[in-house]
Structures are given as C-alpha cells and as structure tokens.
C-alpha cells in the first residue's frame, strides 16, 4: 500500500500527459480503477483496497481538463450493466485525435517537425513512463504505434506559477500587480497564498488578501509583472484550502449560465456542445456554464458569426462590445444580432 503523504509529487502536466497516453494506447478502454492504479501521477497515491476518494475526484477534474483542451475522451458502458459507474471504461479514439488528412506541411515545416520529434523521442518516455506502459501491458493493453506521435495540447503555465509555488511551500507573503478587465492600470495585491488550483483548464491562486483580510481567488493569467516575496511569512494550520477553493469556483461556475445559438457543423458547435455541463436544448441552442464573464465573452466572440448569445443580457452585451471593437479596428460595423458588462462571476471578488 502506498503512503499518500510520502508519495512523490508529479507535475500536473505530466499526469495529464500520462493519462492521455494511457487512454490512447487502448482500444477497449480502461476502468477508473485501472487508471488510478497504473497511470503516472495517480498510482503513486493509489491505495489498494483503501480509500481513494480524493484520487477519484482528481481523476474527475482531470477528465474535464483534457476535454477542455479539445481531447475527445469517450466513456464506454457495459451493455449488460448500464448505469454501473464502477465498470465504465474510458478511452481516446485515435482517429478523432489525429490531425485531419487535409492538413499538409511544407518541406521546411516537415524538417522542423522531424527535429522536434527527435527531441520528443529522447524526453517523452521517462523511466516512470516506461514502467507505466509496462503496467498497462500487464493488464492486456497493447499499443502497436509509437507513443511519440501524440503530443499533448497543454497550456503553458503562466510565469507567476513558479514564484507562487515557491511562496506557497515556504509560507511567504507575496505582492503582485493584478489587472482586472476594464481597468487601465494594475492594482498591487498583497497575498498569503494558501493553494494553487486548476479549474476549467485555468490556474488560480487562493489565499488571504492582506489588505482586505479575507480570502480571495485570483486568475494567474491576470497577474502582470513579477511576483515578489515581501520577506514576511505566515502561519497556516489548515489542509483543505485547495478543496475549499475548488468548491467555491464550482459554485460560481454552476451559477454562471448562458444560452447561445450555434451554427451547425462549425468549430463552435463541435467545441461548445462537448464542454462540461453543456446541454443541447434545441436543434442549434446550447446552455452552457461559465465561471468568469470576461473569459467566456472573449471565447464566444472568438467564434464570430458561428455563435449568437441569447441570454443573459450582460453576456450578450459583453460579446457585442468585443465584436464591435474588432469591427471598428478594421473599419467595419456589425449589428446586435451578431452577439456580451457587469461582472457578476466572483473570480477575484476583491
């Protein structure tokens, strides 16, 4: 039995990559128990016959994260035991994850890709990864194709992550500039960091705002400039900060609901209908959840005419503002029918 407290820490990118590799390597899929007991990043904390509730919650979050990254993770039910979550199997179909056949590369691009593949070949399969693959083979999971062909589409961590991680481990108070949408200048924040969490594919830092003397959650992507250590330290006797932060973010996400119409057969339809919590309520109508108004407005505006926001009105206005600004920057104009600004989401409630 593995001692979860002494288990080595595996970076989240390595855990997600290992999960993608494992689910690509199987045609029949892996059960949750097989994933937790064999895949790098889970197996170090897995307890044979013990309580793995925290690990199972981590797996659920990781599934949502890789789906948010565009990875087509499938769930397979046993026809004879529908509804039995313990025997559900998970897999990533290669055909849905590979590049489309109509994508081609020039000679120079092919050369660069070959050079990158050489580097990938040397570094992608570490000793831990090879041992994980051997464990999968012992379960009867075989792969006829080399794994180096599957590079994960993972977001690069924001530059604030490493200094915040160091401050978190040392319990040091930090300062950083934080630029909220709509503000012309960043505001200096002083924070005692309690947890770094990833929610819906984005990193957040949760801690005690020293000016407000209350807990706050900040998006790392909105931190501007360097994160500096103040030299002051703080005491922290709690242990569930990450779980508490994720619960709060989940509540915000649950309460953020938008209704949109999507153009069938478009990139918007493919992505937005498959994201966590999305519900197709009509032929082209989708109800989706979001945790930050500005982020979802940026995303929806990026789809252009493929998306029309129906409600709520402030989301429609926020998207319309972005489309209008883009059109004006290019000397064009749009109508309100194309739509998204009162931020009621709760991220950075400072």
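^ Assign residues to that structure.
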């Amino acid at each position: 039995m593995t001692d979860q407290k002494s288990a080595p820490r595996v970076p989240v990118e390595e855990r997600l990559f290992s999960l993608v590799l494992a689910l690509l390597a199987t045609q029949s899929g892996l059960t949750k128990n097989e994933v937790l007991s064999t895949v790098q990043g889970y197996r170090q904390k897995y307890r044979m016959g013990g309580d793995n509730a925290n690990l199972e919650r981590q797996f659920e979050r990781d599934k949502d994260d890789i789906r948010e990254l565009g990875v087509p993770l499938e769930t397979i039910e046993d026809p004879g035991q529908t509804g039995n979550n313990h025997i559900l199997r998970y897999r990533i179909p290669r055909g849905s994850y590979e590049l489309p056949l109509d994508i081609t590369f020039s000679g120079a691009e092919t050369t660069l890709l070959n050079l990158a593949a050489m580097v990938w070949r040397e570094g992608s399969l570490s000793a831990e990864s090879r041992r994980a693959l051997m464990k999968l083979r012992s379960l009867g999971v075989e792969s006829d194709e080399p794994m180096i062909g599957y590079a994960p589409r993972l977001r690069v961590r924001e530059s604030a992550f490493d200094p915040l991680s160091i401050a978190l481990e040392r319990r040091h108070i930090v300062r950083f500039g934080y630029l909220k949408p709509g503000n012309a200048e960043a505001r200096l924040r002083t924070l005692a960091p309690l947890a770094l969490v990833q929610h819906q594919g984005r990193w957040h830092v949760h801690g005690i705002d020293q000016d407000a003397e209350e807990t706050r959650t900040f998006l790392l992507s909105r931190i501007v400039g360097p994160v500096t250590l103040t030299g002051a330290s703080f005491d922290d006797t709690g242990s569930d900060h990450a779980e508490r932060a994720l619960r709060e973010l989940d509540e915000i996400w649950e309460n953020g609901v938008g209704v949109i119409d999507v153009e069938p057969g478009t990139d918007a339809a493919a992505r937005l209908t498959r994201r966590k919590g999305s519900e197709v309520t009509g032929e082209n109508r989708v109800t989706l959840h979001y945790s930050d108004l500005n982020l979802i407005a940026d995303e929806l505006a990026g789809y252009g005419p493929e998306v029309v926001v129906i409600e709520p009105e402030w989301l429609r206005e926020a998207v319309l503002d972005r489309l209008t600004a883009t059109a004006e920057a290019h000397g064009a104009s749009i109508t309100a029918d194309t739509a998204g600004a009162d931020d009621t989401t709760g991220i950075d409630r400072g």
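Residues 256-338 form one domain.
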